[in-house]
Structure formats: C-alpha cells, structure tokens
C-alpha cells in the first residue's frame, strides 16, 4: 500500500514516520507544497491514502485520478478545501482534527485584539523611525470593559471566551443555533455589530458564511471598533471591506489567512491592518498533536496498528 504525504513535517516526527512505514509499503513525500496535488495525482492508481493540509484541494478531478484512494487525512479543522460531496460519493473516509488547535487559535485571536488595541505595529514603527511617541497618530486603548462579539460557538470561540472575560471584557456570541448553546450569552448579528467595539470571527467557511460580514454590517460598528478574523478571509466580503475602509478610517482589522497581499487586502487596509499567514492554529504544540491524530486515523482506517 502507498500513502502520499503533502507535508514533510509529518514524517519529521519519528513516531509518525514509524507508524506510516509499518502500515504502508511505500511512503511518498511531496517535493514541495506547491506541487503536492500534482504529484499526488501523478501517482494514479497506486495511492491508498493521502495526508494533506489546507492548501491541497481534493475535488472530483483529483479523486478521478486516484481510483484506489481509501482515506484522506487533513491537518485542519475546516473542510472548505475538500469537496465533501464528491469524497462521500467515492466512499473515501475523511479524517480532520476538530478542536485540537482551539487554544492555539484563541490565543492568536487575543494577540490580534491586544495588538490592534495597543497600536503595537504603529508603536514599533515609530520607535524604529526614531520618532518615539511623536510617530504615533493614535494612542492605545484599554480592552477592559469593552463588549466583544464572538461569531461562532465552536471550539476556538469557546477557548477564547474565558480569555476575554479574564481581561474584564463583556462577551456576546452569535451562532446560527442559539437554542443549542444555552450556556452562552447569544445575540443577533446586527446587535453584535451595532453594540460591540470588538468582533472576533471564528466561523467555518461555508456557502452560508461566505461574505456574511458585509459592508452593511461593518457600517453598524461603533467608533474605533476592531474586527479580528482567525477563520477564513472570505467570510468578510472583500468589496464590503474596501467600501468600509474608505468610509470608516476609525476601524481596524486583523486577519489570519493566506494571500492577503496578493488579493490586495493588505494594501487597501494599510496601516490599520494586522496580518498573519494562516498561522493561528499551527503552534508547535497544536501542529504536533494534529499530525499525531491524522497519522493514527489514517493508519487505523486502512487496518493498521499505530
């Protein structure tokens, strides 16, 4: 049997490598992430399992080239890079890592909130330029007493809530199923944006959430509000973001995702933005645990022992 591994880090772990080598006669590692899907499909009918990340899209075309594929293990919580309908039609098992990196993402969201509130990047730039305080346009603000709207009631949102409360912030939560979360203080989407000076986005990317945060919602934000998105950038409507940046110079944005320079987001928002390249969920600790969970799942799916 053959397993394809898109991320070299997975087999850098001796235990993970040993488990795969005990189960599969051949372990193929991508030469580079940008070529991973091409190299995977080139293996054709020899591949039984694949271990990938969020950059590798598995759709009907890829599946057609891999008739023996039995299981896909993805080091991710989100599944927007997977055509789940096509995968289900083929009877291929999917293994992901829900909840594993919740603390990692929550800490990153809190970091972005504090960095924006405390004007960390402008302060750093002012010091480097030798201007000290004179180089800062706006002073830092306190987060204690601020009302924070958290979009989602999932694992990363729930990991963030106690961190916010520990700093004296008042939390409100928006979820599509408020009745299913009686322990959380829920509110409507417009109420969240109209009352919360900080909004943190933790939603999965689905057809229902794509573009959910549009210009109409962003216009409701109180003066000086901060919006942090540690989910997927597409949840904030790109046209709406461009429109509101021109209208509301008081707003600040933090986003953790790929391609923020290429799609123009970083340039449009400028020095009112804080960006990171989709690293919220990949701390050393979270990455190691996700790799272990995926390897164990793939091995078990093909009948091996980990």
Describe the structure.
It contains 13 helices and eleven strands. It has 306 residues and is α/β, with parallel strands linked by helices. The strands form two sheets. The chain has a six-stranded parallel β-sheet, with helices on both faces. Strands 2-1-3-4-5 form a five-stranded parallel β-sheet. Helix 5 (84-90) links the parallel strand 4 and strand 5. Helix 6 packs across helix 8 (155-166). The two termini are 16 Å apart.
What is the C-alpha radius of gyration, as a whole number of Å? 21 Å
* Separate helix tally: 13
- Overall 3D form: elongated
Q: Which segments are poorly predicted (pLDDT under 50) over 5 or more consecutive residues?
A: none
Q: In whole angstroms, how far apart are the ends?
A: 16 Å
Beta content comes to: 15-25%
Number of strands: 11
Order of helices and strands: EHHEHEHEHEHHEHEHEHEHEHEH
Q: What is the spatial order of strands in the main beta sheet? A: 7-6-8-9-10-11
What proportion of the residues is helical, as a percent range?
25-40%
Describe the sheet with the most strands. Answer: 6 strands, parallel
SS-based structural class? Answer: alpha/beta
Mean pLDDT: 95
């Amino acid at each position: 049997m053959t397993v394809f591994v898109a991320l070299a880090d997975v087999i850098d772990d001796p235990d993970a490598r040993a488990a795969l080598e005990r189960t599969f006669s051949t372990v193929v590692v991508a030469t580079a992430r940008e070529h991973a899907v091409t190299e995977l499909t080139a293996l054709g009918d020899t591949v039984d399992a694949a271990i990938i990340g969020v950059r590798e899209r598995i759709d009907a075309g890829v599946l057609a080239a891999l008739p023996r594929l039995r299981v896909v293990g993805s080091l991710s919580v989100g599944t927007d890079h997977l055509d789940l309908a096509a995968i289900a039609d083929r009877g291929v098992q999917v293994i992901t890592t829900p909840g594993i990196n919740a603390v990692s993402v929550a800490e990153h969201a809190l970091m972005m909130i504090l960095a924006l509130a405390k004007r960390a990047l402008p302060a750093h730039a002012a010091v480097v330029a030798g201007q000290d305080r004179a180089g800062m346009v706006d002073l830092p603000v306190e987060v204690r007493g601020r009302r924070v709207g958290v979009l989602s009631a999932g694992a990363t949102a729930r990991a963030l809530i106690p961190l916010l409360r520990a700093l004296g912030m008042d939390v409100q939560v928006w979820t599509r199923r408020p009745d299913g979360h009686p322990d959380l203080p829920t509110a409507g989407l417009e109420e969240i944006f109209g009352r919360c000076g900080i909004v943190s986005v933790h939603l999965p990317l689905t057809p229902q959430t794509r573009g959910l945060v549009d210009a109409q919602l962003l216009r409701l934000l109180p003066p000086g509000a901060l919006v942090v998105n540690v989910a997927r950038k597409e949840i904030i409507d790109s046209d709406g973001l461009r429109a509101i940046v021109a209208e509301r110079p008081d707003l600040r944005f933090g986003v953790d995702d790929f391609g923020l320079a290429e799609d123009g987001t970083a340039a449009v928002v400028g020095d009112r933005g804080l960006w990171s390249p989709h690293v919220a969920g990949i701390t050393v600790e979270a990455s190691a645990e996700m790799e272990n969970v995926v390897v164990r799942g793939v091995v078990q799916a093909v009948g091996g022992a980990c």
